[in-house]
Write a structure and sequence with these properties.
alpha+beta, 3 strands, 2 domains
Length: about 100
């Protein structure tokens, strides 16, 4: 499950990517992409993504597959209480982009 710690690592990796790889161009970047990018990745695009992820927040909860309801639950409570009797319910993480 995606956590605040994971989000911080993604932000740091993206900063490194922006500062160290983007200036070298697509010849270097292409090696790290698992999907071909056309047109090429730009510094502006990476900056926009960094800004978006910098303002992002994670919300945790339980999602009921039967009803479609999502109930917010604090992360620590979510990982501490795995209730196997709630067969229609599963942990969920929502990434909110501002």
């Amino acid at each position: 499950m995606l956590t605040q710690r994971h989000l911080a690592l993604i932000r740091a990796a993206l900063q490194f990517f922006d500062e160290e790889l983007v200036p070298s161009g697509m010849e270097v970047i292409r090696f790290y992409l698992d999907t071909p990018m056309d047109p090429e990745v730009t510094h502006v695009e990476i900056r926009m993504l960094r800004t978006m992820l910098g303002r992002a927040e994670l919300k945790c909860g339980r999602f009921n597959r039967r009803t479609g309801d999502l109930v917010e639950v604090p992360y620590q409570e979510l990982i501490a209480t795995d209730n196997p009797t709630e067969v229609d319910s599963q942990p969920a993480v929502l990434l909110l982009l501002h």
